[in-house]
Structure formats: structure tokens, C-alpha cells
Amino acid sequence: MKFAKEMAFYTAYHQEGRNIAIHVVGVPMISFSVLVVLSWVPLFSISGFTVTLAMAFTAAVLLYYLYLDIPFGLAATALFGGLLVAAHYVSFMGATVGWSIFAFAQITGWGTQFYGHFQFEKSRPALFDNLFQALVSAPLFVVADVFFYFGIRTHLEDQIKEILREQGKLKTFGKEAEAV
User: Fold this and answer.
1) Helix H or strand E encompassing 130
2) pLDDT score recorded for residue 30
3) CA-based angle 118:35:30, to the nearest 5?
4) DSSP state of 123
5) What is the pLDDT of residue 135?
6) Is 93 helix (H, G, I), strand (E, B) or coil?
7) In this structure, are residues 75 and 143 in contact, taking their beta carbons and an 8 Å threshold?
8) pLDDT above 90 coverage of the chain, percent
9) Burial level of 180, CB count in 10 A (0-12/13-18/19+)?
10) Residue 109 backbone phi and psi in degrees, to 5
11) Per-residue model confidence (pLDDT) at position 179
């Protein structure tokens, strides 16, 4: 239930399908670009293997995700593992490439998400009310949105919608609105 309560806050801002789809692309893009920059910060070495800030940050975030929900946390581990490996690969290409990718991903990722909120969702982004959720929790919630889209673990989606209904924050868009 802790996952449903956490995600209900996020979902209150992300209920329209096109906006959710934008976030499914934009959130990992932003996460990836941050990992590129954090990959340049070495923390310590063990037997010649350098542990970077990107690795430590990813480990901490994934532990939080696993605390909230093990199946979604495991899926996020696969996603973040790939992003982390790719980020370290890009970090070896040099500062010009890394900062260019960072700038492109940040501008595109945030820009498209703001567009989705104002154009489709008709509400401001969640980051204005909870920066932690916007920056740390959003990738996990995007993973959950993909699961829900494919009909997996919909009992959790139902719990989240019930919480939103109780709070008076459940919205309807398109065909759902016509059925109500």
C-alpha cells in the first residue's frame, strides 16, 4: 500500500495518456543525462575498479525503489542498469559530447514534459509541489505506468485510482469522460 500512496501523488498530475507517454520517454532521458554527468565524479577505487557518483546515486535510488515495491524496483533496476552503463560509455567520449547530450536531454526532456502538462493534462507539473518525487521517484512511477498500460499489476493501478477518487483528484479524459 505504501507504493500506491506514493504513486497517487504522482498520478494526480499524470492521468492523460499523451502526457504519460511523453513522460515514459522524457523521464529516462533526463535520468540518463544526469547519470552522464555523475559518471565523471569518482568516489573511490576497489582493486582498480572506480566507483563513481553515478553508481552510488543509482544504488541509493534503486534501494528506495525496492523498498517501495519489489517487482517495480526490479524492473527499474534493469532500466537504470542499462542507463548507467550507457552513461558511463558516453562519459568516456569526453566533456563536449557529454555536456552536449546532457543539454539536449535536459531541454528536450523537461520541455516536452512541460508541454504535456500544459497542453494535455491542463495542470502544472508535480515538481512545483514535490521536487523529490519529480526527480527521484518519477522514474519508478514511469515504470509502473508502462506495466499498467500492458495490463500488468492493475490491482495497484486500481488502488491508486481509488486513493485519487477519495481525494477528489481523479480525472477523466477522452472516452473515459464520455462514459461517465
Assistant:
1) none
2) 96
3) 10
4) S
5) 80
6) coil
7) yes
8) 86
9) exposed
10) -60, -50
11) 39
Q: Which amino acid is at 1?
A: M
Query: What CA–CA distance (Å, rounded) separates 13 from 169?
Result: 9
Please count the other Cβ atoms lying within 10 Å of the Cβ belonging to residue 83: 21
Residue of 37, 34, 16 whose CA lies nearest to 113:
16
The string of DSSP letters for 25-78 reads HHHHHHHHHHHHHHTT-EEEEETTEEEEHHHHHHHHHHHHHHHH-HHHHHHHHH
* 158's grid cell: 486500481
Extract the residue ranges of the chain whose pLDDT is less than 70.
174-180
Cell of 56: 552510488
**Smallest Cα–Cα separation from 7: which of 98, 130, 124?**
130
Amino acid type, 89? Y
> Hey, CA dihedral for 34, 39, 42, 47, is it positive or negative?
positive
DSSP-derived letter for residue 151 is: T
pTM: 0.90
pLDDT at res. 180 = 38
